[in-house]
What we know:
Purple Acid Phosphatase, chain A, domain 2, 6-stranded mixed sheet, binds manganese (II) ion
Amino acid sequence: MSTVKFVHCADLHLDTPFRGLASIDEERASALNNATFDSYDTIISLAIREQVDFVVIAGDVYDSSDRSLRAQFRFRDGLNLLADHGIRSFVAFGNHDPLSGWSNTLEWPDLSHRFGGKAVDVCQVTRDGSVIASVHGISFPQEAVREDLSARFEKPDPSVPSIAVLHSNVGGDTRHEPYSPATVEALSAKGFTYWALGHVHSRRILKADSPAIVYPGNSQSRHPNETGPKGCCLVTITDGGPPRIRFMPTDTIRYHRGSVDANGCETIDALQRAIVEACQAASESSDGRHLVVRLSVTGRTPLHGELTRGSAFAELSEALRMDMAAREPWIWLEKLSQDTRGSYNLDELKQQQDFAGDIVRTYSVLTETAAEELALLKGELEADVLTGSVGRLLSPLTDEEFTQLAEQAMHQTLDRVVEEG
Ligand SMILES: [Mn+2]
């Protein structure tokens, strides 16, 4: 029985500066700045522990084309460690680290191969003198590659598993630059066993077999929009069967976004407990990793007025943040937003012949109106707002956003005129 085993990772973005965090203390900032390196070290240890035949890295090793020396040293240290254990590595570069930005190259170990940017390199992996796999790849020569680089890959030798390594936007993912655009159909026709892709930061198996087409996602989240586990793929191919693809989390800090339902919370203590529980639940599902958490407090609660007035909500957030940060593993409550509503009885208010009743009735026209009338109202609003120099930069609201805004405005107005019981 012949088995080929390898690690597929991509988008390490070593030495990424952390972005999008509104407030952070020094201890957390330093942990976040080291997280991409820590995750890379975890990938290297995993490859050694699993005794893989090789490691492929599908681009964006570095975060920017002027790659820091610190990142280059750390990256090479990992490749050296693999080489010390007889493990080969194959590295393609992507749009964040194209070959054109490569001014200061360090020497790499002999067992590491850096794919060039002119043609697809074909490398054979041998064990005890026999070829067990072929690894093919090409790097981005410059940042903006509009050409479909997959077209340059030639049919591999079908007698051994073949792995194609490429940084590419397969299937036109609109959240990522359309560099080296390709399709699942085109990749499928090439005759490879496994396409080891990079570029898209969420983990995705576009095709499980014949060929497998895989994005492992990035190895460590870098901002609050990249939530959930991050890591690499451990791939085993036995006797030409379908690849066994196991996702292995390697992140050291995880991002979580969620909401806390304040319905039924009648006291600040109860709300505080609900928020702590939400943080604990996120922590428990993260296997001991540190967490950066964004939570939105929603629901209709009699606490709404108290939380809205003065600095009560900010003070609650600060107390919770200190409490969570002191835990081990720590939880950084990065943002707690208040999206609660007052517990008014809207049906009752609507019947009242007073100012509050007028407000509810007026806003009901916006929130309950038929689609055509809503379109008319939206049209009028957009004619006012979306013109002029700033307006041109805004995009029109969806119907859902429009009614949400109307509902929010109604509640904010009611907050000022209704005495809560
Ligand atoms: Mn990337």
